[in-house]
Every structure is written in structure tokens, then in C-alpha cells.
Amino acid sequence: MNIERILRAIGARPEDQRKLLMMAPVFFICGISEMLNYNGFMTLFNQRFGSEYLPYVYAAEAVILPLEAWLLSWLAAKLPKPKLMRVLYGILLGIVLFNATVLLVLQGFGLEARAYYPILFIASSFVVRQQTLLLWSLAVDLCSTQQAKRLMPVFVGSATLGGVAAGLLAQLISLAFGPEVVYAAGGLLLLAAMPNYRKVINRYLVPLSIKMEANAQEEEPVTTTAVFKHALRSPFLLTVILLMTLMPALYFLMEYEFLNVTKLSFPSEQAFSRFFGMITMVLFVLAFLLQIVSGKLMARLGASQMLTAISGVYVLSFAAALFFVGGTAALPIISVGYMLLYLLLYYSAEPSYQLFYKTLPLAQRDSYRYAAQGIAASAGIMIGAGLQFLHSGFGLSWTVLSFVGFAGAVLLFVLAWFGRRFYMRELVSSVQTIGEQDLAEQFDEFGRNDAAIAEVKKMLKLPADSAKEIALQILARLQNPNDVPELLELIDNPNPRIRVAAVRAMNLESADLHAMVKVAAFLEDPDDEMRAEGVRQIGRMKHMEHQAFFFLRQKLLDHHPSVVAEAVKAMYSFNNAPSLEACAEVIDRILDEGGESSVYICRVIAELELRNFIPKVERLAEEAHPAARVAAIDCLGRLQVVTIIPMLLEKLPLMDQEMLRTATQSFIAMGNGAVRPLLDSLPDSPPKHWNSAMSALSMLLPDDQVRTVLTDEALKRLSQLEAALGYSASLQRLGQSELAELALRRWREVRTFIIEGVWAVLTKLADEQVVDAIRRAAADEDEEIRSNAWEVLAEGMGERRLSQYLLTVLERGEEGIAVDSDSDAITQLENAKQGNDDWWREIAAAALVEEETQVGSEQQMMSRLNKVIFLRQVPYFADLSLEELGLIANIAEEHICLDGENLLERGEPNPAMYVIVDGNIELTSISAAGWEGTIGVLGTGDVCGVTSALDNTASTVTAQSLLGDVKMLKLLGENVSRLIRLYPEIGIGLLRASFARIRLLEEMMMRIDS
Fold it and tell me: Is there a domain that residue 119 lies in?
């Protein structure tokens, strides 16, 4: 319970726990390592080589950066993602450990190698830069979009707290050992984080990357030259690149001033390292605090205003440095400026830049981003080095250098100010092309800018309906009451989508009677969705309750149930006696009628938690109408009516797929009240029942119970599934080939249910995203992809025993254990008779008819099995499962049509469809010219009378037995229609077969025409 409270406190969910516990320590330890490395090499370089040489080192870095990017791109192209992540971590660790060894050797033997420190600086700077990118890239790859929103702040917080700990450790270590040991400690911590890092990759990234290449879409690359040319033509893109360049350049200038002032104040290495450690600790404490408020700041200011505010801080920081750089307050003032610029550059400015790229075309967005970042990174370092060189090379004073920084900050502020205007202009112009998700992310920018809103309103006047719809989406988010007059002008638009969107965008909570009357006109609109939206809007006008009640009451009698449901919800919100009484009458009437109308009312009952209607909803759960039955079960589940669980459990084996999914979700919605009944029902339950119960229990039970109770149950079922593979082989051994084929077909269906239940357990014990990727890859047609997924299962995903047993079942496929003798076969079938599946019991019993007392019942079973064996060979029923064929067989009656007898009469009603088992049927009809002729002759496996039987129309042909008696199966249309209502998948299967027959007829006609 403590862990659950902690997860809730940080905004995470229970399913995030394993990933969080594994990755947060990596970010924390690597955060410490990164800042210890940074503290160590910066202290050593500045004290032993000289901070005045920073411009030269930064210039060298600017030259190396393109080579670094090329190397990383080359590695990324050559290596799979998991291996790339391991190799990069190994390279970074190797660089740090090599440098640590060199430093400790130099310290131990009292040697001095001044020329080594620039190499140390460049190599360690590469490590710090790439370590950050590596960890964030890993986190992004492992987390789905929604999970990333929950976990990224935790990872950022872990890394930030690591920086705080690094500052404290740097101070303590430097007191006794010096900067070499500080640097080496960072390497040891990087080594300590490696096991968890590799475990994260193996457990999460390897499975996710199995199909990454197959699913990846090629993106048209955009070269740096193309971006540069585009920037010259686009003021917006040029401003963004200039901001991205100038901001780090000015930071490097402030860093240069800070390091030199600190070196003057603390000439010894120990003192410098301790002060630098203290600054690091304070810096990351501030970073942690900034993370707490950064989301609110971004929400309040937006990306463009955030950059303007950051630029203002740059101006203030350099202004303070300009006034105090020559005095005693220089160290604290410049230290504060350094910390502020560091925080704002790396923790606030970067996210703002990313929002700017949302205005670019989606297909080229990443290419523009990376190319622009490459330009800005190299140019920023070069400009920063040039600014530093003004002091180290040309000898400008600190005051003049601070003035240059101040002038640059003012230029930065001006760029940010104009960039904000360019951004809003670009955002409005791109609003018709950006995706819905991007539009939602950018929405707050519109809400703060009156000019942008004015541009959006202009889109309402454009002829294109798509532009109007986007503008209405934005205005709907704003819900500004002042927009109502302009929106009312759109209610006469011929496009119903525009009318509905306009009504949704209205805020009528304070509207006058005139507006209500205008909206009330929507209530008679021929479009159902329009009427429903009008009802919703009038329901919000609670300041005119009596008038609203008058209009809404009429809609309780609307001909469409969705409108009635909205009227009920609206009137319930008034919470007065007349409204509640009127609604109760309508709900009672609709529930009594049942059918499709009750679907919408069931949703309303669940949403409003109207428990007094539960008895009628329970009766509706027995309704013949499939949609009504599904809606009732869903409603009862959401209301946590656990009394229906026994009824649902009893009906699970015969439920269609939609009903099964709904029942499973209802069990989950019922919560703890469903746990005990489901657990008690697991032993010896039929496969479909078992699948639903296991799926629900996997969601309801805590991890420890899933790992024990459900895992043991899943292992038991997998073992039974393997044993059941011998049933088909046993029947083959006994010469029952048709029953053997039937048993194998049933085994395939059972395997689907059992393996789905096993995947549900593994999903609970592992990461949902990972399990989903492995599940799809394990069934892939590509052998290499499939074998990679199987390798992950072999390693033990979620629960080792279950994962490996599942792999055994998947690898074996349909290859059962050989049956060597008839006695072994009979033993197998005796076991099948005692099993938990009706079909295997029936098949085994049919094959083992030995006792006279069983003959009567077995003969009936054989009759059913014979029908199923026959029907599965009929093309018209080929798409049905064994269970569905069994339902058809139950309503199929044997029928004999005597020689020469008419089965169908043209123009006469036909109550049944017929499947020919043996014999021939001649089809004849009369043409428009009046002559009678033979259309065709049907034989074994053909079906006739389908259309007239199912739609209660007269037969268009005459069907007569030909050349002897005809044996057939008769299916009354009424019974077939009832089955289709109860089991819609039967209807879908028959529909596919009908389409196949239509295609065949079309091909025949084309051949005749040709």
C-alpha cells in the first residue's frame, strides 16, 4: 500500500512500477556520475591548463562535432538499436575509465602532462553530452506516449537529485583526495549503473525493437544545406535557429567569466573543486525546484513567451555582471548568473524549441529539427569561443566583455520578441495542416494571443469546410461566450458537420432567451447528431431552467434513442422533482421495450449511477437483441452489480466475441467483488470461460497473487493443452480420420483461448508495451522476427516458468506426441471424456461407443457430430468456428425430398434454407419472355433457399429433386435469424460466404460476356 501511495503521489500507475524501479536508479546514478565527471575535468583543465584557453578548446569541439555526428549516424545505421545502446554506453564507460586510470597514474607517480588536459576536456565533454542524450533516448524508446508523460518528470527528478548528490560528494571527496579521485568516482558510478542499464535494455528495448525496422517508415531526409536555404526564406525558421545559436553562445561567455572569477577567488585545486561542487549542488537543487514549477510556467506563458522571459533573464544576468564584475560582489553575482543561464538553457529553453517544430510538415519535422540543431550547436560553440577569445586573445577587460554579453542578451531578447510574433503567424498558417494531437498541444498558444484568435475567426469565413472545422475545434476549446453570435451564423450551413461543430463551440451558460430560441431550432433538425448536440447545449443553460425544461421534455419523445438519452442526461442535471419524474417514466418505458433504444439508456444509467433501474437492466441482460444485451452487461459492470456474476459465468462458453469482451471488462469494473467468484470458477472451466476469468483476474489481483495463483493455473492449462494434442493422433490411430480432423480443429480454437489467457498473465507481470510487441512478433510470418521473439520468451519475460513453457507450446505447434498402440489411443480418449471441454468429451465418447447403455445418447451425439463434420465441408459455412457449427447443427433437421417432389415453388413463401447431403436438386425459373428453363443443378454441399428464408420473401426459383430422393439438412429461417441475433459472428460468417458466391457469379457473368 505504501508503494501505491508513492506511485499516486508522483503521478505514476501500478503498471509503471517495475519500469520505474529499474530505470530511476539508472538516472540517479548516472546523474551523479555525469556531474562528478564534469566537476573533475573542469577543475583539472582550469587549474592545470588554464581557463584562458577555453576558447581554443571550444573551437576544437565545434570542428569535432560534425565528425561526432557522422560517427554516431554510422553506428546507428550499422547496429540494431539495443546493441547500439550497449556499444555507446561501453564507449562512454571506456573513455571515463581510461581517463581515470591516466589521472590516477599521473597523481600516484607525481607526473605532470599538461598537454593531456585539453584531450581530457574534449573526451569528457563528449561523454557528458552523449550520456545525457543516451539516457533520454532510451527512456523515450521504452515508454509509450502516455507513460512517458507520467514517468519523464520522475526520471528528470532522479537525474536532478543525482546532480545534487554529486555536488555534495564532490565537496567531500575533494577535501581528502583531489579532483582526480572525483573524476574516477564518476567512472565507478557509471560502471555501477551498467547492470541495471543492460537489464533495462534486455527486458524492454530488445522486445520493442524486434519489429522496429519492419514497421519503420522511411522519412524523406532534409540536408543541412536545404534547411539553411529554407531559413533564409523563412523569418520564423531563421529566428529559431538564431535563438538556438545565440542562447548557448552567451551561456558559454557567462561560463567563461564564472570559471575565471572562481579561479581568481580559489587558486588551489581543492578550494576550486569544493566551490565548484557547492555550486553544482545549489544548481541542481534549483533545477529540482524548477522542475516542480516548469510545467505550470510553460502552461501559463507558452513556448514563445517562455523564451522571451528566458531572454529577459539573460539581459538581467549580464547587466548585473556588467555592474559588479570589477568589485567584491563579482563572484556571487556571476555565480548566480551562471546557474540561472545553465538552468534556463538546458531545462526550459530546449522544450520550448521542440514546440516550434510542430508548425513544420510532419513528414520532414525530425529532419528539420536535427539539421537545425546541428547548425545551432556548431555555430553556438564557435560564437561562444569567439566571445571568450575577445578576452583571452584580444585582452578586452571583464567590464567590456560583460558589456558585449549584455548587448548580445539584448539582441537575444529582441529576437525572442519578434520570434514570438513569427511563431504565432506560422502557427495560424499551419493550423490547417498540423495533426489533431499537435493542435491540442499548441492550443494554449492560441488562447493567450488575441491576434491569433482573430486569425482563427477569419477561417470561419473561408469557403473550405476543413478550415471551418479546424477553427471551430479551436473555438470549442476556448468556450468564449462572446463567440456565440458568430457561431450562430453557421447554423444554416448545408454541411451537417459544420453545424454540429458550431453548436459544440458555443458557450451558452450565460446566453439570453434569443440564443436559446435559436438553439432550440436545432431540436427539429433532420440530422440526429445535430438534435443531440442541441439537447446538450440547452441542458447547459441552467440559468433559464424552466424554459430549458420546456424544450427538453419534448425531446424525451424523440424518434432517435441517442437524442432521448441526451435529454435524460440534461434533465437529470436539473435535479428537480418534475425532471426526475419525467425521466424515470421514459427510462422505464425504454427498458421495458428493450431492443436498440435501450443501448443508449443503459449508458446513461451507468454514467449517472441510477441504481434504482438495476432490476430492469438485469432483465435486459437476457434480451435477445445482441446490442441491448451487451449494453446491459456493460452497464451492470460499471455499476458493480456483482449479483450477475453467476449468470455471466454460466453463459461465458456460448458468448460471441463482443459479448465475451464486454463480460470480461465488466468483471474488471466490478473490482474486488468479482475476484472470489472468478477464482472459484477457474478449476475445470471451459476454455472460453477460463480465458475471460484469467484476463479479468490478471487486472484485478496484485502482482504476488498473479505470480503464484494465476501462474500455476496457466501452467496447468498449458500442460493440459499439450496433452490434448494427442487426441487427434489417437483418433487417427483408431481410424477415425473425420473425428481426428474435428479434434484438431477444436484444439486450435482452445489453444487460442488458453494462450490469450497466458499473455494476459504475462502482461501483468511484465510491461504491457513489451508483451504486446513480443506477442505480435511471436506470430509473425517472418522466421527471423519470430525466432527473436521466442528468444525473449526463453530468457523469461515476466515470469520465467510461464514464459518458457509458453515458448515450448509455440515451438511445438501442432506436432503432438506419437501414439504407438490402440490401447494408448483409447487411454487418451478416456482422458478426453473426463476433460473440461464439451467438444472433446463428445468426440471421445463418439469414438468409444462400447456399452449398450450409452448407445442411445451416443447416437444423438453422433448425429450432432455428423452434422458438424458435414457442415464444415460446406463452403457456405467454411468461415464458422466449431462452436458456431455446433449451434447450426443443433437447429438442423434431417429432411428427405422424394424423387420429383418440389422443394421450393417460384412465387411462394419459403420458410427454410436447405443444405444438400446426398442427391441432386434442379433449379428452374421463368424468364421475362415467359419461357421456363433450367438455371442449374445443385449437388452435395450446395445450399438453396437462403435469400427467401432469411428475408421472408417469395422464392424466385422452383427447386425439384432430380434422379431420386434427396437427403438434406433443413434450417428454418426463423431459427437461423435468431442465432444470428444471438451470435452476430455467425451472421458475419454467412455474409462472407454470400459475398464469395456473389463474386463467383460475377466471374461467371464476365466469362459469359467475353
Answer: yes
Q: How far apart are CA 71 and CA 126, in angstroms?
A: 12
Tell me the three state secondary structure of residue 624.
coil
**CATH number of the domain bearing residue 925:** 2.60.120.10
Indicate if 207 and 226 belong to the same structural domain.
no
17 contacts: CB under 8 Å, gap ≥ 6:
3, 7
User: Phi and psi (nearest 5°) for 266?
Assistant: -130, 85
The answer to whether residues 348 and 202 touch, using CB atoms and an 8 Å cutoff, is no
Question: Using H for helix, E for strand and C for coil, what is the string for 296-342?
Answer: HHHHHHHHHHHHHHHHHHHHHHHHHHHHHCCCCCHHHHHHHHHHHHH
**Paired residues of 923 in beta bridges:** 936, 959
Residue count of the chain: 1010
Angstrom CA distances, 31 to 34, 156, 327, 633, stand at 5, 10, 35, 51
- Distance (Å, rounded) from C-alpha 170 to C-alpha 181? 9
Contact 447, 478 (CB under 8 A): yes
Whether 66 and 145 share a structural domain? yes
Torsion region of 983: left, alpha or beta (phi above 0 gives left; psi -120 to 50 gives alpha) = beta
Residue owning grid cell 556520475: 33
pTM, entire model: 0.74
Full residue range of the structural domain in which residue 816 is found:
723-848
199 and 227 belong to one structural domain: no
Q: Which three cell numbers stand for residue 586?
A: 421514459
Cβ distance 635 to 599 under 8 Å? no
Coil, helix or strand for 882?
helix
Of the two residues 663 and 302, the one the predictor is more confident about is 663
Interatomic CA distance for residues 276 and 265, integer angstroms: 12
Q: Are strands 958-972 and 943-944 parallel, antiparallel or unpaired?
A: unpaired
Residue 581 · residue 612 · CB < 8 Å: no
Whole-angstrom distance, CA of residue 684 vs CA of residue 682: 6
The CA–CA distances, whole Å, from 841 to 540, 746, 883 equal 60, 11, 14
Strand partners, 63: none
Residues 871, 876, 879: CA angle, nearest 5 degrees? 85
User: pLDDT of 847-879, one tens digit each?
Assistant: 877 433 444 433 443 467 788 888 888 877 777
pLDDT for 9 equals 63
**Residue 879 is which amino acid?**
D
Give which of 935, 916, 938 is closest to 927, Cα–Cα.
Answer: 935
Segment 341-380, tens digit of pLDDT = 887 887 667 656 655 555 665 555 555 666 677 777 788 8
The pLDDT tens digits for 160-186 are: 889 889 989 998 898 888 899 999 999
- DSSP secondary structure string for all residues of 348-412: IIHHHHHHHGGGS-GGGHHHHHHHHHHHHHHHHHHHHHHHHHHHHTT---HHHHHHHHHHHHHHH
- Verify that 138 and 106 share a domain, yes or no: yes
Cell matching residue 787: 525466432
Helix (H, G, I), strand (E, B) or coil at 903: strand
Radius of gyration, CA atoms only, the chain? 37
